[in-house]
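Second attempt. The first submission of tRNA uridine(34) hydroxylase had a stray character pasted in from the spreadsheet, which I only caught after the job came back as garbage. Lesson logged: always re-copy from the clean sequence file. Corrected sequence (343 aa) follows.
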Amino acid sequence: MTASASAAEPFKVMALYKFADLPDAAAIRPVLAAFCCARRIRGTLILAPEGINGTVAGTPDAIADLHRYLLAEGPFDTRLAGAEIKFSHAREMPFLRMKVRLKPEIVTLRAPEANPARIVGTYVAPDQWNALIARNDVVVVDTRNDYEVGLGTFRRALDPGTRTFTEFKDFVARELDPARDRKVAMFCTGGIRCEKASAYLLAQGFEEVFHLKGGILAYLEQVPAERSRFDGECFVFDERVSVGHGLVEGEASLCRACRHPLTAMECADPAFVEGVSCPHCAGDAARERTLKQARVAERQRQVELARARGLAHLGDDATRTAQEQKCRKQARKEASRQRQSGQ
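This time the job returned cleanly.
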């Protein structure tokens, strides 16, 4: 990245995951959270006995510190060596706060037989992906959820139509057959879901299972746009909403009422009212819509008021602002009390 581009996008974003043996995940959680908060890093990291997953952002120096801490200097020792890590940049801080969560799985499938640490499909490098998915004997499957697929996907890819990753098992049982679909190629945002999905398919008896190493993000970073077989933009789980080739921020936006990603065409729809509704949630029942829109309209009003005053409305910045305002109010009350007691 050039100096001018770096100045325009001062925040560095790190997405990572690693299936690893972390029986001490609960003990690591507060230590990792303190490390990130001390460096004003924001985002979400998920810890589980099976590994780590998440996306965070901060200054380049802060992210470099965290990178070293995770791979060599911190409580993980060398257990995260070889983690799948993807860096990108953002114009503004894409997260509101820092969260380190402890969960049973780093990506929830609820299928104990799917253990990527024991068995996993064949990794396919981004520069080899086009040739694989062009083959007629390969079934291509997008393992992401419906709202992600709606923004962009690879040509010929099957859309499982899932709302959550746990529904992927139902899609496999309904639409795929190991006797018929002998070669299956899967992809997802950063690689983690396909890794677990490939382990699941192998456990179900599928013969050859491939998955895109590093996911769509690696593909968009490494494959030139003129050679791309990916149409649209890739949804990301932060305030950037989507990215395109070169991992530049995309054109998609987010409905603040239902959290559904929106294309430019959907934002031009009459049903789209910023902060209130979009084509995906405007069809709610009249009463529920009225109540919801009243709540989100008030929230949008508060956001706009805070913006006009130069204040943050959500996240850690808003928390600090509220604390500062509370302290000032208490100081005024104390000063008033002292004046009255001195009279």
